[in-house]
Structures
1.
Amino acid sequence: MELHTTDRDGARILSLHGALDVAATGHLWTPLLRAARDARGRPLVLDLAAVTACDSAGATLLIEAERVHRGDTTTEAAAPHVAAILARLRAVAEPPPPGPPPPPLTWRETILAGLRQGSDGVVFLGEVSVAALRAPRRAKMFRLPDLLRTADQAGVQSIPLVLLLGVLIGLILAFQSLIPMRQFGADIYVASLVSIGLVRELGPLLAAVILSGRSGSAFAAEIGTMKVNQELDALTVMGIDPVTMLVLPRLAAALLVMPVMTILLDLAGLLGMSLVLVGAGLPLAAIAHQVEAWVDPGSLYGGLFKAAIFGAAIALIGCRAGLSTGVGPRAVGLSATRAVVGGIVVSIVLDGVFALMFYKLGI
Amino acid sequence: MTTPDIVQVDHVAQRFAGRLIYENVSFTVAPGEIFVILGGSGCGKSTLMRQMIGLLPPTAGTVAVLGRNMYGGATDTTDHIGVMFQSGALFGSMTLLENVMLPLEMHTDLPASARAAIARAKLGLVGLADSTTLMPAEISGGMAKRAAIARALALDPPLLFLDEPSAGLDPVTSAGLDRLILDLRHDLGATFIVVTHELPSILAIADRCVMLDRAAAGLIAEGNPRTLRDSSDIPLVRAFFHRDLPTHQAA
């Protein structure tokens, strides 16, 4: 495809030669539009006598050249099939210019949106509470197989990951603590440090991260897909409460599995710590004595209580993300992301609240 | 003595974010009728159906089903209506048999063996007797729609809503579904409200229909579809039934 530029009687003549197909359009787009722009202020003639073929991309280029010229433009000597496709594309209504982008949210709107989301969350919490209170009368809707399946997926199937992370975190914490503590001859206190850290904080928190990543996202994706597929509508018209049937089993499963996951993570962490300390020459009996002396039942029960609350929060956030899924497959992905991020953030915030609360209560 | 209408839609309107979808929509459906809501894409047919089954309160107007206002407080008509959604909406984690058994499990005290027998019979009615153990992901679109009809029939409701039963199906499967709807009406005496824009289906099954139009934002015709096809003087109705462009778009 070639472009020749000539002048005739004060008009700029742009002559095209060859087939004006999509490939040729790509080559010609910039030079032809530049030539059309350069011809502003005088008539422009698009000489198509030597154009052997033209597809919709080529016709779009010719129309675009007329548009950028902004003046008197004529096409000349177009073959019938070229003229036909040009006429067809000219008849397509020009799309309306895009509207101005929406103004950025003001701080007031942002705060209001946040408050609205918060109030929606409170409403959802209320719905779940009512569903839980009514559950005995709606026992058929609370499906035990769903609870067991969810407990299996969220808890049993996560055990290898829980144990691996537990051992690794115990190893890392013990190793990193041992180096500075050894300089003060306080090797044995590494056992106290790591065991308290694991049982009170890291055990429940890491279990929450695992639950949120593996199961919070799964809850959101499962329920979100059901919403997109109109299955939630089908439940509603059948007189089945989606909160009772879908949310309560997941909530109960998360409440059940989180303390177990936390105990396993604690034990695996203590094992990892022991491996490092035994390797560093400390006797196992001394390590066990140190752990027993420092980890009191209050710390253990406090950690397990926190784990259960984290589990409930993660399940509720995941289910709510699923129930509020928008339209289309992208919405399911967004819900899963919201569930993971929300689950982790809320767990950490709750952990901070619990830290303050336990400090005040002297636990 | 006249039989009371099974559905009464009275001056119903719907707006989304201030945008008017339709208004002043009124019609009634008599028991035993196959009543079709038709219209072009985006005119609000499925929205109107959602209002009739209790999923979407109308912006204005009232919807009464089986003599009860759907949005007038504690109204529970769920065991009196059956709904087949456009996508089928079968529960993906359950077999076809379990899908059909679910409404029976929730709303009756039948033993499990009786529920299974009834569910098998319903699947047999729609020609899926040999597919009871299949999961929804393992069946074709036409089978999914038939299974969804079987689930809608589970409690023998007097009123069934079908949303686009023929959409996306080949002509033979679609004709089979039309036949099934006619047979079920004949055998069970149920009333059907069908949302569709499939012309052959409308002409094959409908006793009466209403036509919604997006530009008019409401109903533009009501009556027997064959009568509307042959003698309506409304350009949009004529264009719909004769698969033609309306006069103002044809030029």
2.
Amino acid sequence: MKIGKIEEKLLLYRIKQSDKDAFIRAYDLYVDQLYRFIYFKVGNREEAEDLCSAMFLKTWHYILENSLKDQKTLKALFYKISRNLIIDHYRKTKGKETMSLDDEKGIKITDEKQNLNNDIELKADLLVLESKLPELKDEYREVIILRFINELSIKEIAEVLDKSRGNVRILIYRSLNALKELLSQDEKINLNA
Amino acid sequence: MNDQELLKQLSNLKQIKPDHNWQKKYREILFSQISAGRADLERNSNLKIVWESIMPREILINLAKPVWLASLASVLILAVGIGGVYASKNSKPGDSLYIAKIISERAQFAMTFDERDKAKLGVEFATNRAKEMIQVLEDTNQTATTNNDKLEKLSQNFKKEISQVKNRLFIIKITEDQAKPKEAEAEVFGANLGKSDQRMEIAEPATPALPTGQAGGGQVKSTVEPGKVATDPIIEKPAAVNATSTLESASSAGLMLEEAEKLVDEKNINGAIDKLGEVNKIIDQSEAGEVKGVSETASSTK
């Protein structure tokens, strides 16, 4: 679900005024991409759901307490809170196995309408990427999810990561190269085998 | 795998979505959780939101504050200044507003650049000092010693103003004395320069009206008969006459100023004020005469 800039501004304004309906609208708009972001970071569906729900509630409380004085975009705020929650989650689960990407259950794709071909293609893509994404540096993985999966603009990513646009561009370039290298190594191994 | 394929595969990952049931269920839970908190605030229209987003109230207030403060301060300063100047008009030495009067006089003087206007202002200020002397003399609340001191000071200031006016009149006299004959010469030579063999007609110059009544006005001596052409016209100098009148008026104004000084010394202050009034008139008349003379000279050279 896409949203225009003006609509997002209006939504942010309404949320600043503690408008519950506006917040629920924001939930509808952003839940998919935020869930995806968390899911690729934690690698577990249930944990992703828990963190996602915790993130929305925390964001609401943050809005009530801070009135969003310095926040320019709502999306960036959601991502920032998500990142903080994920960091907390990593701290709590330190030493435990992470980044399973639901190995035992397989990735559940909830869009029931998609046809079988798409499903197979997606699963094949995921199988390739699911093994490689966790191997990337956390910073690189994060920027790949934000830029190429959730399609955030450079400006938005810069706001989420608290980096300059130039830094974000460099980070994207490096992370993409790192991913390509990982995939090419994998291809070489497969060919040799 | 090339870049495009990689990006396509990454884009395919977008299809990963949360469980629909969880999403729906959590939506209700979230709504109930946030509803338990603060009550809804009054909703604004989108137009108002857009307006407030473009020009938030804080920015307006922040912008308006210094502008308002600055304009209020300038209006106050202006009002106090104007009020002070008006209130100080009838003040005399020793009054709290007397200094404002002196400052306003100095400011007026500083803003005047023409020597004649400065001379007129000097006469006006001298008149003011004379009027202040009358006020001091009429003031019975002060002791005689205090009044005498004030009178002494005022008399000194009066003489200072008079001497300044005299100097200015002298300067005006010298500058006009130097400037006018040159102009007249330039006119004579200009009229004949390389044109003696050419046919030309010279209009009879207008007689300048001078206040002293001594201005004769230039006349063309050679009368031009019909059919004949004036080849060597002799023109008398109307501007020079004008200058003479200015010099005379300056000297007569100087004499009157001296008389005013004497009258102040004799404590005939009203008489001194009358004399100063006459000086003012002479300066005005000489100025008017000069302007007229200049315009006529200009027309004769056309």
